[in-house]
Design brief:
It contains one helix and twelve strands. With about 160 residues, it is α+β, with helices and mostly antiparallel strands.
Length: about 160
């Protein structure tokens, strides 16, 4: 009986090291070659009225980068302007869009209407990693009562390139 136990223990120890080595090898490959998760988070200065619902920023220059906001005002709002900070973290050019409308065309005279509880999709912007690791976007809007308000969307971190 002792001889069999010794043989079984030798078998487990010998092949156990091989199992650990193979698991370590695959773990190392996964760590090196798996696509990393972007490390960008965004928050609203007024989360009671305009909340950040989602952030999908995968790479600095991806055309799929998107920040989704939620209108939490009691009624519809009219977005009257969009401005990005001067530090250059967000690079927009003329391509940035809110719900498909070019941000460069949004003004008090040409406001973007957003229904109550509706989402606001901000797309077509890039992140410039050379300009630091945080930036701010200001959304100017008028609520259903006619009050002019602003929500600052602050983002921290940078996507992986």
């Amino acid at each position: 009986m002792n001889c069999r136990a010794q043989v079984a223990l030798d078998y487990l120890v010998a092949y156990g090291w091989i199992f650990v080595a193979v698991a370590t090898f695959f773990g190392l490959l996964t760590f090196i070659y798996a696509p990393p998760i972007a490390n960008v988070s965004c928050a609203s200065s007024d989360p009671v009225r305009i909340a950040v619902k989602g952030v999908n920023i995968s790479t600095p220059t991806s055309p799929l980068n998107e920040i989704t906001l939620q209108n939490l005002n009691s009624g519809a709002i009219s977005i009257t302007g969009v401005a990005v900070d001067g530090a250059g973290y967000f690079e927009t050019g003329n391509a940035m869009a809110l719900n498909g409308a070019p941000a460069s065309g949004i003004s008090p005279a040409n406001a973007l209407a957003v229904g109550g509880s509706a989402e606001i999709s901000i797309k077509n912007f890039f992140i410039n990693k050379e300009k630091g690791k945080n930036g701010r976007m200001t959304i100017s809007y008028t609520d259903s009562g006619g009050q002019s308000l602003e929500a600052n969307i602050s983002c921290n971190g940078w996507p992986l390139s």
